[in-house]
Amino acid sequence: MSKYIPSTSKWVADQVERYEGSGGTEGTTLRETGLPVIIVINRGHKTGAIRKTPLMRVVDGENYILIASQGGAPQHPKWYHNLKADPNVEIRDKTEVHAMRVHEVVDADERRRLWAIAVKAFPPYRDYQEKTERVIPIFVAEPR
Ligand code: F42
User: Fold this and answer.
1) Where are the domains of the chain?
2) CA-CA distance, 80 to 137, in Å (whole number)?
3) Does the pLDDT value for residue 121 go beyond 80?
4) Residue 59: which of 94, 15, 85 has the closest Cα?
5) Coil, helix or strand for 42?
6) Ligand 1 pocket check for 28: Cβ under 6 Å
7) Ligand 1 touching residue 81 (CB < 6 A)
8) What is the C-alpha to C-alpha distance for residues 83 and 60, in angstroms, rounded to an integer?
9) Cβ–ligand 1 contact at 13 (below 6 Å)
């Protein structure tokens, strides 16, 4: 079993601890927004360690849509590179944990469709895209 290394960002690590520590009954929203959050559990492509990343919960049928926005920062988040290297993840959605496989969405029409769903679920994604030169990556997570 690999070791879990918490995020260096304290508020993120704290959210993961509260979310998982409660079995998915507490700490499941983004701060005071009340909007739901999932936790993506994956492997670090350099360390091999278990990484846990809270993301907004955006769904499309039985799939989850993962938006690598990182608040509109100029660089992709580290987890983007982890998921490109190893697409097998687990997703915790409140009390349930699903084994999923991710792929990055490259088709322009599919991107547009999923982006619209994401912005509806979490409107600040639009501001994040306006803030940055990079095209914010979108992953689809499908059940394995
Ligand atoms: N981020 C988003 O991009 N989208 C969201 O929808 C989103 C929602 C959200 C909701 C709640 C919440 O608490 C956080 C939320 N975040 C969201 C922030 C998200 O959880 C991440 O913190 C953010 O996207 C930054 O991702 P990151 O992977 O760059 O994380 C940093 C802070 C981090 O933990 N870095 C680690 C570190 O030690 O610096 C590196 C972890 C890592 O993956 N290392 C790899 C390894 O091998 O272990 C190497 C990676 C490499 O390429 O160097």
Assistant:
1) 10-143
2) 8
3) yes
4) 94
5) strand
6) no
7) yes
8) 19
9) no
